[in-house]
Every structure is written in structure tokens, then in C-alpha cells.
Amino acid sequence: MLHRILIIGALAAAAASTACSDRTPLSPPGDAALAASAKAPQKPEKLTREFAKALKNPAFRAYVKAQLDASPFREHKLQFQTFLGANGRRALRYLEQGAEQDAQAAIPLEIYIPVAAHRAAWTGDENVLVATAITDREAPIAFNPQGGRRVLDPETPPATPVIALVPVETDFSGGPQRMECLEDCGGGGGGGGSGDVVPPPAPPAGLYMTKAHFVQDFEGWLKGNPEFEVHILGQQGQTDSLTTYQCAGERQYGPYFFNQDNLDWSGRVLLFSKQQLDQYNAAHPGQNVRVFVVEDDDTACDIKTDPDRFQKIIYQIDSAYQRLTTGNDSSTALRKWFGYGRAAYTTWQSLASFFKSNDELVGNAVQDVIVGQFYPGYNWFVKGENTITNGWINLVMY
User: Fold this and answer.
1) What is the mean pLDDT of the chain?
2) Which terminal residue of the chain has fewer beta carbons within 10 Å of its beta carbon, N or C?
3) This model's pTM is above 0.85
4) Confidence class of residue 86 from pLDDT cuts 50, 70 and 90?
5) Residue 91 — left, alpha, or beta (φ > 0 → left; ψ -120 to 50 → alpha)?
6) Rounded CA separation 247/256 (Å)
7) Residue 206: CB partners within 8 Å, gap ≥ 6?
8) H or E stretch covering 315
9) Phi, psi of 92 (to 5 degrees)
10) Which of 89-93, 177-181, 240-244 has the highest mean pLDDT?
């Protein structure tokens, strides 16, 4: 309790100092900039209908089911364009003429059965739909093997099993990813010939997340399980732009791996090692790091979203909390901890152009003493658009 009193006292002093010495107001991005957006990719509705109609053929249904079942990727996904050309272009033999050209003209797609109950229920029979959508919460357009079109509920899947044909979220280039653990891994282990189990290496010192709770999964049912990632954002070189210095998520290895398929997660995942943090501080004196959560709808650990929306969120959060929206190693001789820090004035203004596409911006972590509220078991709030609380995380320095 004492440390909270000291922190709140320090916060009050910081606020007073801010009121006296920092009267430079933040300026929101212009309305014209916020209105600008990239052209959305076209929904592959024609290709979805062609694929669904091909499933009227029992041999094709059996082939599709066998290929999906054999997929080594999470949720048994297949890269659609690769699937069409595999095994001597076998799938293309069942599709209408021109399907190959349609597939080549489309954005990269993947197929899978996103609902676990549907994966278990579908036996390869004709009772199946093929559905497509581009963005989360968009009403999926579905077709049955007779070519009949349906608009599905974006929140609740139908009783009929659904095969999704959606934009690629999975990195198919490096083979299926393996989970790695740091402790309590279970199983046996080889030794040096004596039968002794070799203990895993000690996890590196650094910033860890031990718990996370989000108010929603930010993922429509057609897109399968959520892919939550935690990014450490910092100054890019000596510019006023942000870049990702480290990412933790389900498609990372070693201590940076964690998989959260539900609203709650607990464990121990490294977000930024002490060595990384020390190197960052040496290269960027006075610049703290942002802990930022996304639900990744595209390539792993590569934030892609509308840059104007990102800038707007950062502006709102920085304005609401006097730019005390970053953090750094605040350890003392008596206690290790990660505490709030002051965000640089310009970090949101010239955001790098790599932020482009469809990922859900869950939010920027803000320490509870800055928010002025406390949530049992967690010490940082995840603040999203309009400073809404989208979740809570617990950050610890080890």
C-alpha cells in the first residue's frame, strides 16, 4: 500500500510540474487526414460461389476434407491459391473454367473451418456452406453446393458447418509453428547419459506479462480464434515515428510465445528483455516504450491498420492521461518493477507508413495509478479508441 501512496504522490507532483512547465497542447489529426483510407480489398464472392458449387461433387468434398484434416497449421488452415495448384492442380479440375484466373486476381486467401464444433461435425457430406468476409464483424456471404446465397449473422455461426474463404492471417511460408515453453513443460527429457533431466535454461530478465483479460475477442466467428499480440513500440531511429521493437504472441518462439484464445490468459510471457530495454534506453535517452495490444488479422507481429486511426487513438489517450502513457524499467535496489513514463510529444504525429490494413487496435497500456482506478490482479489498463477500457494486463519486471 505504501508504494501506491508514494506513486500517487509522485503523480501529483508530475501533474503540477506539467501544469507549470508544459503548456504545449496536443493537436488532433485533421479531419481530412482521418477521412483518408486505403481502398478496401474486394470480397471474393464469385470465387466463394464457384468453390461451394464444386462441393456438390462427392469426390471433391472428400478431397477438401482430407486436405483440411491433414493441414499442420493452426485450425487446419490451407493457403487457398496453393491448395488449388497442389497435387497436379487437382482441385481446379472440379471448379468452373476461369476459377484459376479469379483466384490469381484475388488477394491471398486461406480456407478452413473456423468453428471447432463444425470441424468435428462435418463428415464431408453435402450439408456445408462456404462463406467469405473481409473484415471482422462483417456479415459473411455464404453459398451452399447448389449455389444458393445466404447472408449469415456476423455474431453467431449457423448450425450448418461453414468453410471460410477469407484473407490470409497465417504465415504459411515457414511451416507450422511449434510451441516452446520455459517452465512446467511436462514430459521426459534426455540427459547426459545418466538419465537425469536437463533443466530448461533460466528465463532472461526483463518485462513480463503474467495475466491478461480483454472485454471481447475482437474477432468475428468466421475468422476463427483471436490472435492477440503485445507489441513494444518505441522511437524509430531519431525520428518522430514509432516502430515495433519486440512482439509477443502465438506465432512467436521461446519466451515470447503465448496463445490467448479466450478473454482470459495467465502464465508468463516475455515482452522485452532487460538487455533489449537497456540497449533501447542507451540509443534513445529520455524515450520510453509503449506497450500496445493488437488482435492481428494479417501477418504475424506486423501491425497493419489505418495510420490515421492509430494516430487518433494515441492522441486521445495521450491527451486524457497527460502523456504518461508509456513505461520503462523503474526498478530499485529493493524492488523490480515497470512504471509509467512520459511519452514524447511527437511520437504519434508522423507514424510510419507500415501501419496499414486490418488489424484490430485493442489499445495502449496505461498504468493503473495514471488511470486513477484499480482492477484486482492487474496493474495496467488497456485503453482503446475514445479511451475506452478494452482490457487489463499485469506487467512485472523479473
Assistant:
1) 82
2) N
3) no
4) very high
5) alpha
6) 7
7) 270, 271, 272, 273, 274, 275, 276, 277, 397, 398
8) helix 307-320
9) -65, -20
10) 89-93
- DSSP class of 334: S
Per DSSP, the residues of 28-70 read PPPHHHHH--PPPPPP-HHHHHHHHHHTTSHHHHHHHHHHHHH
List phi, psi (to 5°) of 295.
-105, 110
Spatial strand order of the sheet with 129-132 comes to 78-79, 109-112, 162-167, 129-132, 141-143, 149-151
DSSP 144-204: -TT--EEEPPSSS--SS-EEEEEE--S--TT-PPPP--SS---S----SSSSPPPPPPPPP
Taking the C-alpha atoms of residue 337 and residue 368, their distance in angstroms, rounded to an integer, is 14
Locate 84 and state its grid cell: 488449388
- In this structure, are residues 102 and 42 in contact, taking their beta carbons and an 8 Å threshold? no
End-to-end CA distance of the chain: 20
Q: Which has the minimum average pLDDT: 135-144, 219-228, 280-289, 309-318?
A: 219-228
Phi, psi of 7 (to 5 degrees): -65, -45
In this structure, which amino acid lies at residue 268?
Answer: R
- In the block, residue with C-alpha cell 502465438: 250
Cα 241 to its chain centre, rounded Å, is 21
CB proximity list for 181: less than 8 A, separation 6 or greater: 200, 257
CA distances to 72, 172, 266, 299 from 175, in Å: 8, 6, 27, 14
Work out the angle at residue 140's Cα, subtended by the Cα atoms of residues 121 and 231, and round it to the nearest 5 degrees: 90
DSSP state of 207: E
Q: Are strands 338-341 and 326-329 parallel, antiparallel or unpaired?
A: antiparallel
Quick check: 370 and 352 in contact, CB under 8 A? no
**What is the CA 303 to chain-centroid distance, rounded?**
8
How far apart are alpha carbons 109 and 79 in whole angstroms? Answer: 6
